[in-house]
Amino acid sequence: MANPWTPIWQQKDSVWIIDFRVGARRIRRRLPIKEKALRTTAERMAHEIYNEAWKKEVQPSQSSNKISFAKAAELYEMSGGEARFLPKLVRYFGSDTWIDDIDEIMIAKAANDLHPGAKPDTLRRQVRVPVRAIQNFIAGKRRQKSTDVRRLRWLSPEEAERLLAAAGAPGTVGLKDPNLETLRKISFMLGTGAGPGETMTLDPSGWNPTTRQWWLDGTKTVYRPRFVVLPQRAVNLVGPIPETGTAFPAPNGQPYKIHANRGAQMAVAFGKVRDGAGLGPDVVPYTLRHTWATWFYAQTKDWAALLDQGGWGRSDTANRYRKIAPADLANRLLAHGWDFRPEQGAPVRFGELVSVNFQGSGAG
Question: Where are the domains of the chain?
């Protein structure tokens, strides 16, 4: 009588396989041996797998995931995991296969058994990816879905004008800001989409008044390095740029002391201006970045430029900032002096020699 671990030669795939039970679980997999003449080697490997399986069964290690594939798949789905391809996999592996026993060979066999003749990408998408996702989930390695509540608030042009008016009269809102530094920062962020932390640490050497561009160094985790283009309205509101020091200091004229939460330093001044404008607490400095993205795209319809100037590396991230806007937003922005459209020249005939002129900072 053959031992339970005795391997079986599978002629169809030219490979040795094992198929036996250890306690309540079934162990079936291919061995990495594809020569029928190596029977002795296959038997030795199968025996080692059998002994190791019983060792785990009798004395399970603390790190072993003693959970079946079926149960793991159920927990994975309950936690919000993609369930589209799970039913076939659950029927295949079931409750007889421990999740931590499934290796690449078992995955390859499952792919061939469940989807014979399918393309490699189909096998990867419908078998390997979901199996590995479940294993990562059970091992605590699965990336958790963000619990961040998507920010929906952005400012209409009319609300922005109220905010700018309050920042332009700081004494009326209880803010000591003789040089209107809060107005300058709000105007810059509305016009460029720069984050609060970026704005407060901005180097004036990056400013090019000829092209109305400012070089932003970006951050390691949030923004990519990029050029932003200031619309003329923002240039006018920001006013003269100092040649040295900090481009946008605190209301007292001193550079900000940058902390880990870099946007919080301007929260007090911004809050006074916001309250004076009659806007609610849902309007925060970061609302200005969402506002810029919505305004910019509504007027330009230029998705590539939105990503470039916004400093985003992914379209889905940019889409979180660009909100659904009314059809007349572009014209309402123009009525308030906000023009994000690229400069265009007159039509040119084929073969005509032309020169390209860039509009200077003094143009309207």
Answer: 1-59, 64-144, 157-335
